[in-house]
Structures are given as structure tokens and as C-alpha cells.
């Protein structure tokens, strides 16, 4: 199979996967692509690499450590390409040949370069056990406005994601107030909540249709909830079978503390009748 490597962006996900690899007794290495320091327990198996020097930094480190399988986990935004980047020549040439620099185009290009060197990118969930929420409503009943906003927002979120722009939209009163672009989910939530004047906007987050599970699955965690609370957003709608929920028990406990309702949907994300059934008294999951 080859040694496991983890490309670690910001956040908890890379370290949840690292703990799982450790529990399985695997030999693994972590390659840091953000300035966040690793947990002390993983400092000895971690090293920093530069995404903008993909060939001379990232690939060189993966090959030196004899990595055969690779996980891509954690937050990393496109602005790394524009924030005083230091490219190597082969990375510049790789970028120049891309038809665009959307997230999925970049992933496909990188995946092909890795495959040529017999490094296989594996699904993100292979080392993230029990990371999805079952379909249902978690928290308070929805208002009539929220019942209308969720299918409206999910429809727009799917379209935005189809265009490879982002995964998240913020809506209120059947109006789109923010669309996630290169800035990431948290800043999208802040912007949308502020534009709705903190009156209880709905955050909708989805994955692409036929999404590649090796790359950039939608993720929600306690930080998402804290950002929503600051922005005055009251509902988070996600897909039950494709949105990674970081540390589910803590996530649901925090949502309850903050008064945020989580709606987890599968199948038709715009099914109003199903939402109404889900909103009946005594049907909440928690």
C-alpha cells in the first residue's frame, strides 16, 4: 500500500485522521501547508511544505518519505496563489497550462502529477470514522420563513457549487445575501449575516453532484457555529451523506448551546414537504 501521507491545512480534520492512523498502528507523515503548528503529539512526524513550490517542496517531500497513499485534509484557500507567492518554475508551468484556476481544476491537475509518481490520493473519509449526520432536524423547530429559505438556499448552493465557485450560500427571506468564493465559509457567513442585519439568516452548504470524495468535501464544525452565532444566523442546512461534521457530539452540543438548528438532508434537498414533516413537534433528533 505504501506509507500514508497527510497534507494538512488549517483546522482539526488532519489531526483527527492522524489519530486514527496512529490508532491503526500505521506509519505516516504529515505535511503542513498552513502556518498553524501541529499538536505536540505529532510534531515529530510533521514537516512544513510550500504549495506554491509543488514540485521542489511538496513532491520532493512526498517522494523522500516514500508516500504511497495521500489524504488531503484541512482548510486551504485559493489566495495562497496571490499572497506574495514563491513559485518554482515547474509549478508556474503547471498553472499556466490549466484552463482555469478553480479548486477542482487544481485538484485534478495535482492528482495527475501525483499518480505519475505512484502516489494515490485516497477518499477523505477513509480515516474519518462516523463523520456524517443522519437526516433530520437537530434543535428548535423552524419558522415558516426558515422552511421557505432552506429549499431556496439549497437550490442556489447547488448551482454555485456546480459552477465551481463555492459550497455555501447565506439566505434570508428568499434572498441570497452571500455566496462563498475564495474567501472561505466563515467569511461568507459573516458577510451574509451582517447584510441580513443579524435577523436569523439560513446558511446552506452542499457538495457537488457526483463529488469526488478525495477532495474538498464540505465540512462543518464548532467554529462554523460560533461564526454563525456572531453573524446572527440561526439555521445551518447541510447534506447528510456528504458534509463532514467535525466531532459530532461536541458539534451538536455547541449548536444547542448557541440556539442554532441543524437540518441534515439527503436526496432532494429542495423537498418542502419533507422539511415540513421534519419540522413537526417531537421529531427533532436532539
TrEMBL record:
Transmembrane segments: none
InterPro entries with a match to the protein in the record: LpxI, LpxI_C, LpxI_C_sf, LpxI_N
Domain called LpxI N-terminal: residue spans: 3-130
Annotated LpxI C-terminal domain residues: 138-263
Protein name stated in the entry: LpxI family protein
Amino acid at each position: 500500500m505504501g506509507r500514508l501521507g497527510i497534507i494538512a491545512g488549517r483546522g482539526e480534520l488532519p489531526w483527527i485522521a492522524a489519530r486514527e492512523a496512529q490508532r491503526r498502528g500505521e506509519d505516516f507523515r504529515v505535511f503542513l501547508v498552513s502556518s498553524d503548528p501541529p499538536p505536540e503529539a505529532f510534531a515529530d512526524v510533521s514537516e512544513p511544505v510550500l504549495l506554491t513550490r509543488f514540485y521542489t517542496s511538496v513532491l520532493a517531500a512526498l517522494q523522500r518519505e516514500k508516500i504511497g497513499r495521500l489524504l488531503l485534509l484541512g482548510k486551504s484557500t485559493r489566495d495562497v496563489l496571490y499572497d506574495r507567492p514563491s513559485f518554482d518554475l515547474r509549478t508556474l508551468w503547471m498553472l499556466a497550462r490549466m484552463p482555469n484556476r478553480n479548486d477542482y481544476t487544481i485538484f485534478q491537475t495535482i492528482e495527475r502529477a501525483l499518480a505519475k509518481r505512484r502516489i494515490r490520493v485516497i477518499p477523505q473519509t477513509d480515516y474519518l470514522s462516523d463523520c456524517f449526520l443522519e437526516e433530520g432536524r437537530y434543535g428548535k423547530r423552524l419558522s415558516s420563513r426558515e422552511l421557505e429559505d432552506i429549499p431556496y438556499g439549497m437550490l442556489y448552493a447547488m448551482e454555485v457549487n456546480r459552477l465551481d465557485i463555492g459550497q455555501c450560500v447565506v439566505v434570508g427571506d428568499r434572498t441570497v445575501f452571500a455566496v462563498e468564493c475564495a474567501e472561505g465559509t466563515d467569511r461568507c457567513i459573516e458577510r451574509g449575516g451582517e447584510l441580513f442585519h443579524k435577523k436569523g439568516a439560513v446558511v446552506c452548504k452542499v457538495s457537488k453532484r457526483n463529488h469526488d470524495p478525495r477532495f474538498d468535501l464540505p465540512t462543518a464544525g464548532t467554529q462554523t457555529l460560533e461564526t454563525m452565532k456572531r453573524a446572527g444566523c440561526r439555521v445551518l442546512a447541510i447534506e447528510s451523506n456528504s458534509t463532514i461534521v467535525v466531532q459530532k457530539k461536541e458539534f451538536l452540543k455547541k449548536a444547542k448551546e448557541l440556539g442554532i438548528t441543524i437540518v441534515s438532508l439527503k436526496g432532494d434537498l429542495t423537498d418542502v414537504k419533507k422539511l415540513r414533516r421534519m419540522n413537526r413537534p417531537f421529531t427533532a433528533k436532539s
